């Protein structure tokens, strides 16, 4: 049976999430407690347990200067003993029905593995989101430039990406993405021009999102110095590096289907991974 999420589903969600992704209960509860409410999730209940699930997070697809209400599909997973039965395929179909009913135009998602691009393509998803991956050996001579910035990161983000196709998050969602990154040991640094959201493993900084377009500006906002820096840029940034398939989209109504062919080199970002 497919149904919407209820508050008393939390224990079953935690068990499934732990098995699928390996996160701790504290990490899972951080998402469930901190994510925007009401929380929209689809549950596949089978044999009295949550066998499969996915979450639908509110956002907008920004195309040609206009915003189209959409969902970001997150944490789609199935218990190991129930895989191969088509449960996720049914959930994906139900997600499109829910999205259309709620006035959305698109559902976007980031496949957790390269092999999953083919799976989602079979269910109507198209790869339109790409990213430019740049690796850089930072020079210690670059002067760190981080300041307290009174401009909210959501405004910095929209200002930097305006004029391009991208998934647009509201103020609350951007705040949560920053808190989520911090909870998992990441950092966010800003200066007068923008921000960089990054993690560090002691040998490499991974800049998960930045509003800057020049490598040196990104490096100057990183407060924990590691010489090797991997930067995930939007695809339109003019920098060295490989452009890779990054995320996918599907239309859920006729207007969305008319628009989808005009979407290319789009950017997702802030994927909570």
In total, how many beta strands? 12
CATH architecture of the largest domain: 3-Layer(aba) Sandwich
Mean pLDDT: 92
CATH superfamily of the largest domain: Gcn5-related N-acetyltransferase (GNAT)
Order of helices and strands: EHHEEEHEHEHEHEEEHEEH
Radius of gyration: 19 Å
Runs with pLDDT <50, length 5+?
none
Count of helical regions:
8
CATH top level label of the largest domain: Alpha Beta
C-alpha termini separation: 29 Å
Query: Structural class, from helix and strand content?
Result: alpha+beta
Estimate what percentage of residues fall within beta strands: 25-35%
The major pleated sheet works out as: 12 strands, mixed
CATH overall fold name of the largest domain: Aminopeptidase
Q: Kindly state the percentage of residues in helix.
A: 25-40%
**How many distinct folded domains?**
2
Give the assembly state of these chains. single chain
The shape is globular
């Amino acid at each position: 049976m497919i149904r919407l999420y209820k508050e008393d589903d939390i224990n079953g969600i935690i068990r499934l999430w732990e098995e699928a992704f390996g996160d701790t209960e504290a990490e899972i509860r951080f998402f469930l407690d901190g994510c925007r409410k009401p929380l929209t999730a689809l549950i596949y209940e089978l044999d009295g347990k949550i066998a499969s699930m996915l979450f639908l997070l509110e956002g907008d697809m920004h195309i040609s200067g206009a915003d189209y209400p959409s969902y970001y599909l997150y944490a789609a997973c199935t218990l190991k003993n129930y895989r191969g039965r088509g449960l996720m395929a049914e959930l994906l179909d139900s997600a499109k029905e829910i999205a259309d009913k709620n006035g959305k135009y698109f559902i976007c998602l980031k496949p957790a593995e390269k092999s999953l691009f083919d799976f989602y393509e079979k269910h109507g998803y198209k790869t339109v989101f790409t990213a430019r991956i740049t690796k850089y050996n930072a020079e210690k001579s670059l002067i760190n430039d981080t300041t307290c910035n009174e401009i909210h990161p959501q405004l910095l983000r929209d200002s930097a990406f305006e004029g391009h196709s991208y998934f647009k998050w509201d103020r609350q969602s951007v705040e949560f993405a920053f808190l989520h990154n911090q909870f998992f040991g990441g950092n966010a640094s800003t200066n007068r021009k923008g921000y960089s959201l990054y993690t560090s493993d002691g040998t490499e900084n991974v800049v998960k999102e930045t509003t800057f377009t020049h490598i040196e500006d990104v490096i100057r906002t990183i407060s924990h110095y590691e010489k090797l820096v991997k930067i995930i840029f939007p695809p339109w940034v003019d920098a060295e590096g490989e452009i890779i398939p990054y995320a996918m989209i599907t239309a859920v109504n006729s207007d969305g289907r008319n628009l989808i062919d005009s979407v290319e080199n789009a950017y997702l970002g802030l994927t909570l991974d």
